[in-house]
Specification:
By secondary structure, the chain is mostly helical. It has 1 helix and no strands.
Length: 163
């Protein structure tokens, strides 16, 4: 009986050891399953995150492409605007220059016409003055000639007088 009791105690100890080992194996199995589930969940989260990152990258790339396109378009519009403004400025400058030339030409023509008019008025006034003064000058000239003749005649008259 002691031997059986000892054997029973050994069996109980072996059962306890096996039970503990079995619990450990069960716990390891549980932990392995939990770890596998965690790894699987982590892989799912990783795939989700990678998919979200890919979507975000695509969205970002699309936004950047749109911004680059918008920037390129704005640059083209700005360049076109500058070209149009430069063309308008050039045209305005040409119009101003043509207007200046036209006004200058008209002013010169007006001044030339005024000059010619004044010249003809002065010529007319001179001609009138000449016509008015000429008879008087002719009279004076005739008087001077007569006086000269008389002065030339005086010595001859003086010689005719007896001495």
């Amino acid at each position: 009986m002691i031997a059986e009791s000892s054997r029973l105690a050994d069996l109980r100890a072996a059962i306890d050891t096996e039970t503990t080992r079995l619990k450990e194996v069960h716990e390891i199995d549980y932990n392995v399953n939990a770890l596998a589930a965690s790894i699987e969940a982590q892989a799912g989260r990783k795939a989700t995150i990678e998919r979200e990152m890919a979507e975000q990258r695509e969205t970002f790339d699309a936004q950047m492409a749109a911004k680059r396109e918008e920037s390129r378009r704005e640059q083209q519009e700005h360049e076109q605007s500058v070209r149009e403004r430069d063309l308008q400025v050039k045209r305005q400058r040409e119009r101003d220059e043509e207007e200046y030339k036209y006004k200058s030409s008209m002013e010169r023509r007006k001044e030339a016409a005024e000059y010619e008019l004044r010249k003809s008025e002065l010529q007319r006034e001179m001609d009138e003055e000449r016509r008015r003064v000429e008879p008087e000058l002719e009279e004076r000239k005739a008087a001077i000639v007569a006086e000269e003749d008389e002065l030339l005649e005086l010595p001859k008259r003086v010689e005719r007088f007896p001495k």
